[in-house]
Amino acid sequence: MDLRRKEQLENKVYAGERLSFADGVDLYETDDMAWLGRLAHHVRTEKNGDKVVFNVNRHLNLTNVCTASCAYCSFQRKPGEKDAYTMRIEEAVRLASAMAPEGLTELHIVNGLHPTLPWRYYPKVLRELKAALPTVALKAFTATEIHWFEEISGLSADAILDELMDAGLESLTGGGAEIFDWEIRSQIVDHKTHWEDWSRIHRLAHSKGLRTPSTMLYGHIEQPRHRVDHVIRLRELQDETGGFAVFIPLRFQHDAAGDPRNRLMNQPMATGVEALKTFAVSRLLFDNVDHIKCFWVMHGLTLAQLTLNHGADDLDGSVVEYKITHDADHFGTPDKMGREDLLELIRDAGFVPVERDTQYRVIREFDGPDAARRDTPQSMVV
Ligand code: SF4
Fold it and tell me: How many CB atoms lie within 10 A of CB 174?
């Protein structure tokens, strides 16, 4: 990128002007990471200061049985396969309750599209989880699952959301977005929920007062222009509803174990630089969302720390047993991080940790970096 173009983009960012599709594509072309990181860090700091929010959550996957066969997914199992499972409701309650002593504030529930499990199972699970853990927020189901519930129940998404909210639903999850552009989506997504239905369901959820996350699966067969298009679609929907609480770039995990279900298993994963670019450009483009989250399970802990200097201000979370992509992970990331581990990770990156709830309300602000812990400053100036 020539100096004049860099100056143009920099002026736009510092003036708080909205970036265009062409701006986003050009930003991906720069190899000046210090410059790009500085721009993203400027916006991140304007919005969120030196805070990094996190929450104490647990992921629950009620079933891995799925009618679809998405090309990037190592989690899906077909009915009757050896390690296919569907949890009894008591089992889900037992697993969730086991983490209550650790100060759990959120359950994150995502599942396969089970072909025969009846619709009534899902609100029943929520009701029983809520009865057992009344103070824990239930963030459950992707837009893809809500669309699936329409198909298996014959009900509208409107009626489905009403019943789930009555059973305790506080937020949808952000999954199923992957990459909206059809050229890419048609090659990797095997279920029937595409931009039209994904956006219809999130719009509906927002109209009912639910705030939802938004996501993007990057680093597989898409090009930067597809990522820019994806973020701009979400930004336009956010202009309309204001209902997205956060944007979460999710890094595609190739499958080191060679699981043939993951048909992209030989696809190299996005490098660390590509990951940082994706966070930085997303922060700069998605100007009307408050938070950019790094899901450390998909990035590893050290890269997760660096994303905090490239636009991210939210670190998820004290995850336990994350399966959807962790089944494919070969980076040796732990499958659980407790509150103390997260505090250490955030402080060592030079930020002030803040525990939040599902609605992004502050539960507690902690002390910032501990000068006595390290002689060398760990914060990065870009
Ligand atoms: S990503 Fe979701 S819908 Fe697609 S195969 Fe995996 S579990 Fe099924």
Answer: 25
Distances, alpha carbon 218 to alpha carbons 252, 287, 322, 367, in Å: 6, 19, 18, 34
Q: How is the chain split into domains, by residue range?
A: 20-365
Q: What angle do helix axes 33-48 and 3-14 make, rounded to 10 degrees?
A: 10
Closest to 329 (Cα-Cα) out of 294, 295, 300, 293: 300
| Cα 68 to averaged position of ligand 1 atoms, centre (Å) | 6
Is the pTM higher than 0.90? The answer reads yes
Q: Is 250 in the pocket of ligand 1 (CB under 6 A)?
A: no
- Position 328 pLDDT exceeds 50: no
Express each pLDDT in 134-165 by its tens digit.
999 999 999 999 999 999 999 999 999 999 99
DSSP bridge partners of 356: 362
Does the CB atom of residue 215 touch ligand 1 within 6 A?
Answer: no
**pLDDT above 50 (res 329):** no
Which ligand 1 atom sits nearest the alpha carbon of residue 189?
A: 4
Nearest CA owner, ligand 1 atom 2: 112
Topology adopted by domain 20-365: TIM Barrel (3.20.20)
Instruction: Give the C-alpha separation, 305 to 380, whole Å.
Output: 10
* Beta carbons of 142 and 176 less than 8 angstroms apart: yes
Whether pLDDT at 110 is above 90? yes
Mean pLDDT of the chain: 91
E strands in the chain: 51-54, 57-60, 106-109, 137-140, 169-171, 212-218, 244-251, 291-295, 314-316, 352-356, 362-365
